[in-house]
Amino acid sequence: MLVFYFYKTIAKKNVIIFIMRLDSLLSVKNLSVSFHENHILKHISLDVRKEEVLAIVGPNGAGKSVLLKTLLGIIEPTAGSIEWFPGIRIGYLPQRFHVDMYLPMTVGEFLDLKPRKILTNEAVLRLLKLEKSWLKKRLAHLSSGQLQRILLAWALLDDPQILLFDEPTENVDVTGQESIYTLLHHLQDTTGISLILVSHDLQVVYKYANNVLCLNGKQVCYGEPKEALNHKTLSELFGDHTVFHHHHL
Amino acid sequence: MTIPLIVFISGIVIAAASGLVGSLLTLRKMTLLSDALSHVALPGIALGIVFNFTPLWGGVVFLFLGIFLIRIIEIRTKLATESITGVLFVTALAVGALIIPEQELLETFFGNVQSISYSAAYIQMIVAILIIGTTLSLLKQLTLASIAPDLATASKISKKNIELLLLVLIATTIAVGISFVGVLLMSSLLIVPAVTAKNIARTFKEFIGISMIISAFSLFAGLCTASIYSINPGLATVLISSGIFFLSLFVPTK
Predict the structure, then answer these.
(1) Would you call B147 an interface residue with chain A, using a CB distance cutoff of 8 Å?
(2) Measuring CA to CA, which residue among A189, A84, A188 is closest to residue A197?
(3) Does residue A123 belong to any structural domain of this protein?
(4) Which residues contact A143 (CB under 8 A, 6 or more apart)?
(5) CA spacing 20 to 30 A to A131: which of B93, B120, B176, B201?
(6) Cβ of residue A105 closer than 8 Å to a chain B Cβ
(7) Cβ of A114 and B155 within 8 Å?
(8) Residue B27 region, left (φ>0) first, then alpha (ψ -120 to 50), else beta?
(9) Closest in B144, B156, B206 to A113, CB measured
(10) Each residue's pLDDT tens digit, B90-109
């Protein structure tokens, strides 16, 4: 009887752990990154589940891009652990992508440079509601907003289950910004993709994110936006003047 | 001046390889690096002339020694590749010019097609074919790492390996091209055609293709002019390739 009871509890625990694992795409514990004894990130912990949108907010130089690059394995962490769901496909949109004005390359040729493609160029353009004729456009002739869409297309080519989006802080006009978020939202609706997005726009966070991580070298807050982003965390994050701004959101 | 057919053919293949590698260099804004690097071969060529072995091999050895040295200094000092090459290139130029007998100095600087033996022409042609094959088979990775290093790293393409591969490709291309156009004029095959192609091409395929064709045509026309008018083939090639560049400025495409 006793043996049976133990067996049951162990089995139950395993099932629970198993279900948690199936649902969780990324688990980060106590992550720290430093360059030459400069602490860029300190003790960051976060989880991302299926279909979740996690926003990362913080002032310039808070280590947001470094965090994304560390998650991607471009930068080595100094401490802590990063656990991705085994075999997960990750998409990435970098903050900056400078195109040489004289680069003779079409959008189609650029997308063809992607290693390990799963979807075709045409299929990805369809996902983004772009015409097939975009493939013939010259990369150097695109506006920054259009270029960002093509980068999104690039990121979607290997049919990722999670997308890491590093918001550009410059050079994208407001309408361009808005359309990229509408597009991401539409994508999430149709494909159920998870998102980690770096943003400095709190409206975007309130509108689209399930969870928010406030970053200022260390983890200032983490949780649902309405709870995590309170007066105290916001003033710690951006300084006192933003609290006023927050009231008007 | 009569130039054997095999030297002609070998030269055209080498020039095509230079056009291909050169087009990758313009993507990285590394054009002057290749020019400077070609001078690093000089002491090796000098040793070949003085000790009577094929100067080409001396050049190859010194080019690779040069790359090795650049890498070591780069790791130790964090100086840019281009800066270190700048230092090495003047040093190598001075050392080479000191060793090479005066009457052969001009040939080394501007190339001497007539000194190319049949066997050397064959070997150089095979090496050039290998360069073209390697570059084309790794063209995607080489291009991506040049135009979007971040995307390349995210796609698990090693930046260091690609840079090393590119340096080896440049060095090998220079080594096989030097006997045709000389140490000083190597950029007529590597840089000028690629820059011209970049100026008129609309797609990447066009860019690479035009660069290879201009390079090959310049050398071919250079060798023809040289054999008709008995002038230095290296100089003729440079003038033809830069002539095409200036003409291309009048092509209204963009």
Answers:
(1) yes
(2) A188
(3) yes
(4) A173, A176
(5) B201
(6) yes
(7) yes
(8) alpha
(9) B144
(10) 898 899 889 888 878 888 88
Contacts of A106 in chain B (CB under 8 A): 202-204
pTM confidence score: 0.82
Q: The dihedral of CA B157, B161, B162, B165: what is its sign?
A: negative
Do residues A30 and A44 touch, judged by C-beta distance below 8 A?
yes
Residue B50 has a pLDDT of: 85
* DSSP of A59-87: -TTSSHHHHHHHHHTSS--SEEEEEEPTT
B144 touches chain A (CB under 8 A): yes
Task: Enumerate the residues of chain A whose CB falls inside 8 A of the CB of residue B202.
Answer: 104, 106, 138
| Average model confidence (pLDDT) across chain B | 88
The string of pLDDT tens digits covering residues A209-248 is 899 999 888 888 898 888 888 888 888 877 765 544 444 4
CATH 1.10.3470.10 fits B5-248, yes or no: yes
Instruction: Write the burial class of residue B187 (CB in 10 Å: 0-12 exposed, 13-18 middle, 19+ buried).
Output: buried
Instruction: Tell me how close the Cα of B202 comes to any Cα of chain A, in angstroms.
Output: 5
Structure tokens at B65: 């020694």
Pairs of residues, one from chain A and one from chain B, whose beta carbons lie less than 8 Å apart: 54
pLDDT band at B143 (very low <50, low <70, confident <90, very high): very high
Say if A17 falls within a structural domain.
no
A-chain CB neighbours of B205 within 8 Å are 109
Give pLDDT, residue A7: 54
pLDDT, residue B138, reads: 95
* Minimal Cβ distance to B198: which of A97, A104, A138: A104
Residue A155 contacts residue A95 (beta carbons within 8 Å): no
Domain ranges of chain B: 5-248
Contact A72 B154 (CB under 8 A): yes
Which tokens belong to A119?
């979807």
In a domain, A186, yes or no: yes
- Closest approach of A196 to chain B, Cα-based (Å): 16
CB contact under 8 A, B27 and A100: yes
Nearest residue of B to residue A106, measured between CA atoms: B203
Here the CATH number for the domain that contains residue A138 is: 3.40.50.300
| Beta strands across the sheet bearing A90-93 | A79-84, A24-35, A38-49, A218-223, A211-216, A53-57, A194-198, A162-166, A90-93
Structural domain includes residue A188: yes
Cβ B59 vs Cβ B227: under 8 Å: no
| Domains contained in chain A, number | 1
Instruction: Quote the domain boundaries for residue A167.
Output: 60-75+97-204+234-249
Output the pLDDT for position A177: 66
pLDDT tens, position by position, A150-181: 989 999 998 999 999 887 666 666 666 667 88
Percent of the residues in chain B that have a pLDDT greater than 90, as a whole number: 37
